[in-house]
């Protein structure tokens, strides 16, 4: 279920998108309007049944009992208009009710239906765009909607007393809640009646009148629905499922089940095992709102809200040296997989990154994958090792000043079980089937690296296992053996520490939204007990709702499928995550020297066009400056675009992770990191949208205007794959106007250099849009876009009498760097 709007406020519109399935009987104090986005919906209201198809809608009045049954692959959106808003229109005492089922309306009413669809779509857009606080607009639209319903779709027959309707609804809700909470027991109509202080005879008549079915039939349907869920999602026996869901015997359960679903429980389970349902592709789901949004009025944006200018006034005293700044975000960069580090284009990008930014460590996955040609076995099953490609990779990295952050993963195919690749590339995310051979491989790798680079050099690197989420032990990629992972980690930890006390071992690479999981804290508890706590606590930071291992490996690891969960609404996700992890580690008494985000991005999907847009530059600036020197490293995932996890794209700008496109065109995200790299070594000020630093006599001011994803995109983040619609996915904001007063500068002339990065200057993606989105870039076009990937530059001199006042205007997603020197 997706929710748009603030469900805790009684004075705002709320939209809810239902999942496919059966909905229990319920009621609402305000008005609901159900809109069918796709498929077919059967809605029961009081004693009436309504069958609606795509783009039909139905009005359900206050306190009317209703239930919903959606056919397969159907989607429905419900708009909830609370009494607090309705009372502003009619007053609280006026019991207005409406009779509007668009599928049953007369032809002459079609013009009114079109207007209702337009208002419905405009209100939905206003809510997901964050305009719900514009109460004047919301109220005017709701007033127009209710006025139209009152004049053209009034309820013709007498309206019951609303107070009595409310009492009836609440009584029935109590009865249904009691049934739903106790259906697994030997529940009788007498027990339900007694719990609700009525007689059995009254309950029998009342239940049939209000719900439209008998008590016994309703109880059986509730039990069957629960049993069906357990049948398809657990390995329980059919007898156990029957008894756990209140059926007196297995035979009775099978009889009722076949009557309801047309086949026995055993046959259904066999059918599902032989033909498991394919995971739903979010791209298909993402289009469901388009049928509604095409009804949005052309001037909806102008009518909804005119984005206000945000004004920021600051004063910073530069006479103080400030707080020392190490810029720890430069500690770590990712290049994806080890084999990609041997490609000429990736190496050229890394050389440029080192020249223009200068990172300290580089991390990559798949060092032990088959494509690195390390592990083989002879005809007797004896291991044969070859570290030639490892040497080529590490020699190159060290030659450009990058130390390896060595991840010991994944598992060569000869040692892998299950023999199932998680991605298109040759990576097996699982525990080794033969731990002794795998551990021998790790030991020989370390011996080889020591012989080639020296133990002292290796003790300046970091070593880690693959993520704790990769401890897969079954073919369906649903079972994660955390105990086996810990045993392997402990063994590697002790071996590395035996080679030298300075060897640094990090872990466990837990997803940021799994930090509450018991297995993480069991891992750390075992580490503390065995004296093998990691030297660095590592996280994979992706701002999603909670990720569960089996869901992750059945979706994101399936070829070409994105992760379907919602993006977080928290604009300070990284900061709040850092606070939470540091607090939890401290409270638990685990003295781990540092915290690192070894993978970090705003998305887990390599077709998210926000990765290419100016959004990503403001996103990086915002999160890095908010967490300056709080985290050992913020390993952006990734520097390059050559990942083989999904099918390749013919488009140069297709939403890939990289700081560069596959043809080496810098994205605005890369230019933003270059700007960050020019900050000084002492921090004078860090606040909302602004950071001020100094290096020697030069002052650096970095500004950004961040706009978060809007609510619709967060909840269904593949809404529209069309690049030209990319900037419609964010909360709409006006310009940011900054007035910054720098004091303590003394007297004299100052040179002011200003760099601007935004949609009009420096963004190769926006330049590509203006070129007409050519699908295949030729050499001339690539050269043009590479040359265009430069921020706008302006230089001036200003006289200063101790104080310098700077002003700046930033469009949404824009970044500015201002350098003040002698």
From TrEMBL:
Q: Which residues form a coiled coil?
A: none
The answer to whether UniProt assigns keyword Transcription regulation to this entry is yes
The protein's matches in InterPro entries, at most eight in alphabetical order, are given as: GH, GH39_cat, Glyco_hydro_39, Homeodomain-like_sf, HTH_AraC, RmlC-like_jellyroll, RmlC_Cupin_sf
Can you give the residue ranges of the HTH araC/xylS-type domain? 173-271
UniProt xrefs under SMART domains? HTH_ARAC
The record's Gene Ontology biological-process terms are:
carbohydrate metabolic process
Give the top-rank taxon of the lineage listed in the UniProt record for this protein: Bacteria
* A GO MF term: hydrolase activity, hydrolyzing O-glycosyl compounds
Instruction: Note the SUPFAM superfamilies from the entry.
Output: (Trans)glycosidases (SSF51445), Glycosyl hydrolase domain (SSF51011), Homeodomain-like (SSF46689), RmlC-like cupins (SSF51182)
> Which keywords describe this protein according to UniProt?
DNA-binding, Glycosidase, Hydrolase, Transcription, Transcription regulation
Under PROSITE patterns, the record lists: HTH_ARAC_FAMILY_2 (PS01124)
Its family? Belongs to the glycosyl hydrolase 39 family.
Q: PANTHER family under this entry?
A: ARAC-FAMILY TRANSCRIPTIONAL REGULATOR
State the protein's name. Helix-turn-helix domain-containing protein
Organism of derivation: Agathobaculum butyriciproducens
| Lineage, opening ranks | Bacteria, Bacillati, Bacillota, Clostridia, Eubacteriales
């Amino acid at each position: 279920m997706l929710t748009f709007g603030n469900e805790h406020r009684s004075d705002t519109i709320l939209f809810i998108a239902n999942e496919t399935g059966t909905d229990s009987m319920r009621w609402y104090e305000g008005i609901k309007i159900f809109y069918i986005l796709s498929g077919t919906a059967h809605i029961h209201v009081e004693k009436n049944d309504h069958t609606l198809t795509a783009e039909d809608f139905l009005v359900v009045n206050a306190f009317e009992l209703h239930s919903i049954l959606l056919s397969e692959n159907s989607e429905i959106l419900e708009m909830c208009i609370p009494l607090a808003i309705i009372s502003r229109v009619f007053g609280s005492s006026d019991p207005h009710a409406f009779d509007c089922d668009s599928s049953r309306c007369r032809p002459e009413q079609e013009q009114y239906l079109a207007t209702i669809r337009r208002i419905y779509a405009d209100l939905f857009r206003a809510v997901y765009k964050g305009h719900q606080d514009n109460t004047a607009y919301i109220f005017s639209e709701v007033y127009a909607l209710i006025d139209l319903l009152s004049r053209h779709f009034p309820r013709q027959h007498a309206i019951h007393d609303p107070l009595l309707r409310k009492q009836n609804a609440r009584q029935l809700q109590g009865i249904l809640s009691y049934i739903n909470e106790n259906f697994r027991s030997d529940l009788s109509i007498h027990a339900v009646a007694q719990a609700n202080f009525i007689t059995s005879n009254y309950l029998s008549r009342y239940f049939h009148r209000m719900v439209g079915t008998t008590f016994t039939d309703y109880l059986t349907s509730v039990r069957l629905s629960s049993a069906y869920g357990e049948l398809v999602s657990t390995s329980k026996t059919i007898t156990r499922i029957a008894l756990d869901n209140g059926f007196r015997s297995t035979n009775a359960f099978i009889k009722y089940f076949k009557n309801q679903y047309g086949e026995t429980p055993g046959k259904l389970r066999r059918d599902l095992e032989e033909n498991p349902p394919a995971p739903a592709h979010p791209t298909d789901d993402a289009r469901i709102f388009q049928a509604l949004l095409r009804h949005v009025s052309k001037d909806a944006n102008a009518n909804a809200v005119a984005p206000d200018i945000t004004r920021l006034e600051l004063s910073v005293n530069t006479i103080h040296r400030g707080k020392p700044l190490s810029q720890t975000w430069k500690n770590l960069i990712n290049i994806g997989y080890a084999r990609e580090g041997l490609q000429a284009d990736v190496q050229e990008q890394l050389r440029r990154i080192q020249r223009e930014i200068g990172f300290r460590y580089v991390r990559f996955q798949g060092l032990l994958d088959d494509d690195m040609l390390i592990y083989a076995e002879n005809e007797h099953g004896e291991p044969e090792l070859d570290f030639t490609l490892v040497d080529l990779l590490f020699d190159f990295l060290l030659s450009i000043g990058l130390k390896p952050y060595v991840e010991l993963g994944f598992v060569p195919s000869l040692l892998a079980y299950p023999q199932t690749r998680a991605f298109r590339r040759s990576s097996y995310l699982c525990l080794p089937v033969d731990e002794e051979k795998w551990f021998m491989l790790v030991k020989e790798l370390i011996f080889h690296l020591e012989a080639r680079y020296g133990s002292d050099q290796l003790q300046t690197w970091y070593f880690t296992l693959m993520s704790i989420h990769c401890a897969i032990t079954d073919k369906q990629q649903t079972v994660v053996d955390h105990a086996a992972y810990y045993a392997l980690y402990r063994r590697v930890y002790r071996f590395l520490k035996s080679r030298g006390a300075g060897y640094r071992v990090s872990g466990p690479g837990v997803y940021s939204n799994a930090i509450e999981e018991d297995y993480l804290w069991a891992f750390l508890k075992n580490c503390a007990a065995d004296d093998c706590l990691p030297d660095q606590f590592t996280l994979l930071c992706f701002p999603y709702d909670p990720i569960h291992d089996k869901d992750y490996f059945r979706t994101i690891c399936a070829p070409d499928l994105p992760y379907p969960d919602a993006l977080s609404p928290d604009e300070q996700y990284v900061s709040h995550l850092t606070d939470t992890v540091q607090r939890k580690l401290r409270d638990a008494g685990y003295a781990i020297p540092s915290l690192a985000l070894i993978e970090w991005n705003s998305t887990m999907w390599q077709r998210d066009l926000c990765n290419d847009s100016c959004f990503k530059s403001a996103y990086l600036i915002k999160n890095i400056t908010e967490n300056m020197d709080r985290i050992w490293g913020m390993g952006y995932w990734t520097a390059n675009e050559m990942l083989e996890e999904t099918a390749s794209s013919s488009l140069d700008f297709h939403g890939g992770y990289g700081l560069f496109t596959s043809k080496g065109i810098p994205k605005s995200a890369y230019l933003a990191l270059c700007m960050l790299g020019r900050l000084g070594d002492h921090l004078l000020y860090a606040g909302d949208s602004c950071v001020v630093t100094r290096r020697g006599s030069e002052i650096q001011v970095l500004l950004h205007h961040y706009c978060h994803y809007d609510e619709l995109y967060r909840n269904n983040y593949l809404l529209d794959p069309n690049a030209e619609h990319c900037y419609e996915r964010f909360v709409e904001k006006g310009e940011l106007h900054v007035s910054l007063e720098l004091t303590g500068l003394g007297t004299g002339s100052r040179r002011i250099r200003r760099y601007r990065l935004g949609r009009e200057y420096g963004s190769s993606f926006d330049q590509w849009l203006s070129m007409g989105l050519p699908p295949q870039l030729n050499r001339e076009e690539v050269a043009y876009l590479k040359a265009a990937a430069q921020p706008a530059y302006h230089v001036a001199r200003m006289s200063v009498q101790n104080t310098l006042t700077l002003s700046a205007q930033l469009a949404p997603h824009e970044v500015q760097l201002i350098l003040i020197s002698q």
